[in-house]
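input
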Amino acid sequence: MLPVLGVDADDTLWENEERFHEVEQRFRDLMAPWSDGEATDAALLATERANIARHGYGIKGFALSMVLTAVEISDGTIDARSLAGIIGWGHEMLAHPIELLDGVPEALDTLGSTHRLLLITKGDLGDQLGKIERSGLADRFWRTEVVPEKDPGTYRDVLECHDIHPAEFTMVGNSVKSDVLPVLAIGGRAIHVPHTTTWVFEEPDPEELAGVDFPVVENLGQVAGLLAG
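output
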């Protein structure tokens, strides 16, 4: 039995956050008659924060948050066609082609020769499964888990479900808050693969990083050498 290596999906295997940034700029432009860009960003962020517990992570919740924010900022004066346009942006995001990050298929092939790869991604179940299927990478993974949140309890449950002891598990991902700190908290190991952009909700508090040490690599292709070492 090969050891298990956990792998994140969004912004670890393929581009994701950039799509959100592009739509956020469209939203700023749409709200320009009522609000400047900074105020619009702050209002949308507050709405997203309030709605995550209800709608979870992902494009659908993001689109709903934009609609609610647009109504609030415009004091209800925004027209129905504009609101429909926001929903259309969400549909575009859901159908957007998957853009794999450089070297990802080759890196997974190498890692899969020495480890059972367990894909662990959070977000909307249908959206995430659709991206995995469209990516062409699905058959490289031993198991796939789509979870609503990535915290210590979730990781414990996933590992217990697959009869994996935390001390024998390593997680690889772009988010320190979701892919590194929760795994270290349950006694596992983690490798950080930074991405060019990070969602504000994925930025850890400085206090969480105090006294915590973990390896950082430039890309997924460097993980195999680190594990071998």
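quick obs: The chain has two domains: 4-15+99-228, 17-95.
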